[in-house]
Design brief:
The complex is a heterodimer. By secondary structure, chain A is an alpha+beta fold. In chain A, 43% of the residues lie in helices and 22% in strands. Chain A contains eight helices and eleven strands. In chain A, α5 (208-227) runs parallel beside α7 (256-283) and α6 (231-250) packs antiparallel against α7. Chain A is globular. By secondary structure, chain B is α+β, with helices and mostly antiparallel strands. Chain B has 27 helices and 15 strands. Chain B has a five-stranded antiparallel sheet with strand order 2-3-1-7-8, covered by helices on one side. A three-stranded antiparallel sheet of chain B has the order 4-6-5. A three-stranded antiparallel sheet of chain B has the order 13-15-14. In chain B, a hairpin with a 2-residue loop joins β9 (175-176) and β10. Chain B is flat, with a radius of gyration of 36 Å. The two termini of chain B are 52 Å apart. Classes of the chains: A alpha+beta, B alpha+beta.
Chain lengths: 298, 694
């Protein structure tokens, strides 16, 4: 009996908790990917060790299809694992996690195919793979090399499972809405309405003027917070800017000439946050290094 | 001498397939160079590679470096000996520095001076000790992209997991990051185990038992024969794309080819779309029948054995089904938008920062292409085709299909245009105008495509130069050099009676018209002149023309490239002939003496003193007319004959006339005559650039 989505998530959480990852919850600001959660983006900056795992609902307004496409979604779910410094056996740990959710590597064709990740709005890039199972991409696997405008050292390994992809594989379903979240409740039961409404809103209804004003306001507020050395509130506003930009883009409110300008504005803020985060942690004496020392004592 | 084999294996997390070949080559070259420098004799270096390992075996490697006798030179004899014939302080100091006794010093003459010498013998060190230096070779490897991992400082292609270094049965224990070389290797990620390599010669056999084929060419042969087997069983034809095979080969350690199928209904989608979906996205080999039509099957190569192969097949079929369903959706949706509606949308697609939208570029290209077609005197139907094809040349950029498969730009344009009822030449020109895409690519086949190709590329170059984006050194992010080379190939390949200069002016006028020039026009033209001269020069060199001859014929861009090429070939064919040399010498006397004189003043015939002056003057005037005539008809041989015919008069002139006369007026008049004639001669070539071997 194949796992439903809830069982899959619980299994992955337990598995990574067993690998000394702190199980976090999704962050409460809209975002396009689990990487943007401060538990990944900011925590991957600087020398402090950090191991965490969490589910991140990720919104991509431009990918909305009114719930009519079997594979594309306004919002999908990522299971995110970050470990810094990247453990030497991180690939093995990952493969064991697949076994935990019922994927026997001997019964499939599992590959690590080169795929390099880059997030221009975060001024971040890394090298790694997409993981294929019988030709389907189920995971993005990245060693961060550069984050928030700074070289990443020690290096964070990031594993991003596409929960819907993985579930469609495990449950052998062609249509995402037919998948089982828990027994008797399908993905469609839970998200079809949201897919339709958000798609309609993003493409047709959203008030461009309002969103543009919100973007400008959040941008300004982020700058102000950074000046006050309040990195986390500043970063929340950067996330808002990023989501508003995606929404405006889907709504067709951003002209071609403006597009690169908007991306540069968000990147600029993300860099400032990255730099300020490093400085604030340094002032605190990089507190999580204690944990590192403790681990070595063991 | 005792020899042993040496095995080195670098175990890594999966390397990008496209880097492996280069890494293997680099590792081999560096190792061989090092072995030779270290005087370590061996018979061969055999390379192995899989996604997870780079390895080599040095065969019959001597167990000691060869001994070496080195001669060191000291001070000159006169300094080395005192007046009494004893060793001087200088000589004794040299001996001490070389750690030898003074009696071992001897004299030897070098270029007429005697010096003190000493022979030093270097004893070869044991190989097992030398091999520790492999660490430096490994860490010096470079890759197109390098990374760090964990807390290590080293940058490498992917994290290093293990190292094997074995000389005979001796482990060479050097350390990189926190990995120390040993004799433990690892088999296939899922099917194999950790193993102890007994000795270098059992390496590939031991790995084979652990489901790893370490020899890359053996793996390739295996994949090929497995595909051929499937081909024979099913009576299919499976074309093997070498590039894809090479990539697939570096994605697997233990290949098993298998086939899957998809719904025949998808065969209605254009072939290129299906092939791209299969090859680029999934690394599958498409399957054809004997007539070359696609069949609804594909071949994939699994990294593993045949266990559970049906499940692997089913998984791959599911993925392809989703991809083809997407493609079908794009294909159906795209056809709902006409090419003209799509062109409208191009006004909202940015071309490049500072350079406006694609829509604007297309309109420029359309205007200039139409002008060029008229200039080339194409018939009116073709001119109309050019105009139409240029108008819709990039409409497919806003289709869903090209958004998903960017590599299909042009091809989808052709397909959709055809379905929308455009004529064949127009449809073809859309696909053709992107050609040539690379150095070895074919030229646009139809003339419409060739015209648009040349204009489109020239527009890209001139507009980029106009905003200061000029390639420098290795910096050419938009591939402008390649595009310029494409223009040169296209206008010569189609024998357009067109010069680069003319094409630049046509395009530049339109760009100025639209106020896109952000720099001084003269500066832009100067940069373009230099840039294109280099491209034409390169074309000549590629065709085997000598450097000096290329420089001699490359006068300016206002001359047709095919004529320039013909001149170069003409000269090169004669370069070794004696009478050619004599002609060049005569012509060079004129051009050398005139090189600092600006021609321009009128020649005063009343100042002539010798008959030879008058004679040469007449010949110059005739030459002017003859060159107008011959060069106007691209008659290279005729033009050269006309120039050559003046040489007796030149020789006679120099025999009887002194250019640098005492009378300043006479002297200036003679220099003017030389300048005038020189100008005529150099309408053909700068003969004085030609180098003669003796």
């Amino acid at each position: 009996m194949a796992m439903n989505i809830q069982e899959m998530i619980l299994t992955l959480q337990n598995y990574w908790a067993g690998q000394n990852c702190i199980i976090m919850q999704a962050y409460d600001v809209e975002k396009g990917a689990g990487t943007m959660n401060p538990m990944t983006f900011l925590r991957s900056i600087g020398p402090e060790p950090w191991n965490a795992a969490y589910v991140e609902p990720s919104r991509r307004p431009g990918d909305g299809r009114y719930g009519e496409n079997p594979n594309r979604l306004y919002q999908h779910h990522q299971f995110q694992v970050v470990m810094k410094p990247s453990p030497d056996n991180i690939q093995e740990l990952y493969l064991k996690s697949l076994e935990a959710i019922g994927i026997d590597p001997l019964a499939h064709d599992i590959r690590f195919v080169e795929d390099n990740w880059e997030a221009p709005t975060l001024s971040a890039w890394g090298l790694g793979w997409e993981v294929w199972i019988d030709g389907m991409e189920i995971t993005q696997f990245t060693y961060f090399q550069h984050v928030g405008g700074m070289d990443a050292h020690p290096v964070t390994a990031e594993i991003t499972y596409g929960i819907e992809r993985l579930a469609s594989y495990i449950q052998d379903k062609e249509n995402v809405f037919d998948m089982e979240w828990v027994e008797g409740v399908s993905y469609g039961d839970m998200f079809l309405q949201a897919e339709y409404e958000h798609s309609k809103y993003s493409f047709e209804i959203a008030d461009k003027e309002l969103l543009l004003n919100q973007f400008a306001a959040s941008e300004k507020e982020a700058e102000r917070a950074i000046e006050e050395k309040l990195v986390l509130p500043a970063y929340d506003h950067v996330l808002k800017c990023s989501h508003l930009f995606n929404l405006l883009d889907a709504r067709g409110a951003i002209s071609v000439t403006e597009r690169t300008g908007y991306i540069a504005r968000v990147r600029n803020l993300a860099r400032k946050c990255g730099k300020a985060y490093y400085e604030e942690r340094e002032k605190l004496g990089f507190p999580l290094r204690k944990q590192e020392a403790m681990n070595y004592d063991n | 001498m005792t020899t042993n084999h040496f095995l080195l294996e670098i175990g890594v997390e999966e390397m990008p397939a496209r880097f492996v070949e280069g890494a293997v080559k680099q590792l081999k070259e560096k190792t061989e160079t090092w072995l030779q420098e270290q005087r370590l004799s061996y018979s061969a270096v055999h390379m192995f590679s899989t996604p997870r390992r780079l390895a080599l075996r040095v065969e019959d490697l001597a167990d000691y470096q060869e001994d070496m006798v080195e001669e060191a030179r000291g001070p000159a004899k006169k300094i080395a000996l005192t007046d009494d014939g004893e060793w001087s302080k200088a000589a004794l100091g040299f001996a001490r520095g070389q750690q030898v006794e003074a009696q071992e010093l001897y004299f030897k003459e070098v270029k007429g001076t005697e010096y003190v010498f000493v022979e030093k013998e270097h004893k070869g060190r044991p190989t097992s000790e030398m091999l520790q230096q492999m660490e430096a070779i490994i860490t010096s490897l470079t890759f197109p992209k390098n990374m760090r991992w964990g807390s290590h400082e080293l940058r490498f292609v992917r994290p290093i997991q293990w190292l094997v270094a074995l000389y005979g049965e001796t482990v060479i224990p050097f350390t990189i990051t926190d990995r120390t070389a040993g004799n433990t290797s690892y088999g296939h990620r899922f099917l194999g185990n950790a193993i102890t390599i007994h000795k270098p010669e059992t390496y590939e056999q031991q790995l084979k038992e652990e489901y790893v084929i370490a020899d890359a060419s053996e793996r390739t042969d295996l994949i090929r024969s497995q595909i051929e087997e499937i081909e024979a069983e099913n009576n299919w034809h499976i074309p093997i794309d070498q590039e894809l095979l090479a990539e697939v080969n570096q994605l697997v350690e233990y290949p098993t080819a298998l086939h899957g199928s998809f719904d025949e209904a998808y065969l209605d989608i254009p072939r290129e779309v299906l092939v791209t979906s299969m090859k680029e996205h999934q690394r599958y080999f498409p399957v054809e029948n004997d007539e070359g039509s696609l069949l609804s099957y594909f071949i994939t190569v699994r990294n593993g054995n045949t266990d559970h192969i049906d499940q692997v097949r089913k998984g791959n079929e599911k993925v392809l089904r989703a991809r083809l369903a997407d493609a079908q959706f794009f294909y159906d949706e795209d056809q709902k938008v006409s090419p003209d509606e799509a062109v409208e949308k191009l006004n909202h697609v940015i071309y490049q920062e500072n350079l406006g939208t694609v829509g604007e570029k297309v309109m420029r290209v359309k205007t200039v292409s139409t002008r060029l077609a008229e200039y080339l005197q194409l018939d009116s139907a073709k001119v109309q085709n050019v105009k139409r094809a240029a108008h819709i040349s990039k409409f497919d950029l806003v289709t869903l299909m090209v958004d998903e498969f960017t590599e299909l730009q042009g091809v989808m344009g052709r397909e959709y245009a055809r379905m929308a009822g455009e004529n064949t030449e127009v449809a073809e020109a859309i696909a053709e105008h992107y050609k040539p895409k690379s150095a070895g690519d074919s030229l646009p086949q139809n003339v419409e495509g060739a015209v648009i190709s040349a204009v489109d590329k020239m527009d890209t170059i001139v507009s980029s130069f106009g905003v200061g984006m000029v390639p420098t050194g290795s910096q050419d992010p938009h591939g402008l050099r390649r595009q310029a080379a494409g223009i040169v190939q296209t206008i010569t390949g189609h024998r357009f009676p067109l010069t680069i200069q003319q094409l630049i002016v046509l395009v530049l006028d339109e760009i100025k018209e639209r106020s896109l020039l952000q720099r001084e026009e003269a500066d832009v033209l100067k940069d373009l002149e230099e840039f294109f001269t280099q491209r034409v020069r390169q074309k000549l060199l590629d065709e085997g023309i000598r450097h000096d001859i290329a420089d001699a014929v490359l006068l300016h861009l206002g001359e047709r490239i095919d004529v320039v090429t013909e001149k170069a070939v003409f000269i090169q064919a004669r370069a070794e002939e004696t009478d050619f040399k004599a002609t060049v010498e005569a012509l060079s006397r004129v051009t050398n003496i005139a090189k600092n004189t600006d021609s321009g003043s009128d020649i005063q015939t009343e100042l002539f003193q010798a008959e030879e002056e008058r004679e040469l003057y007449e010949k110059s005037k005739t030459l002017n007319q003859q060159l107008d005539e011959t060069l106007g008809q691209a008659d290279v041989a005729g033009a050269y004959q006309a120039i050559q015919a003046v040489t007796p008069a030149i020789n006679a002139y120099f025999d009887h006339v002194m250019v640098m006369a005492e009378d300043e007026q006479v002297k200036q008049n003679r220099l003017q005559q030389m300048a005038l004639l020189s100008r005529e001669i150099e309408r053909f070539a700068r003969f004085r650039n030609i180098v003669f071997s003796s």
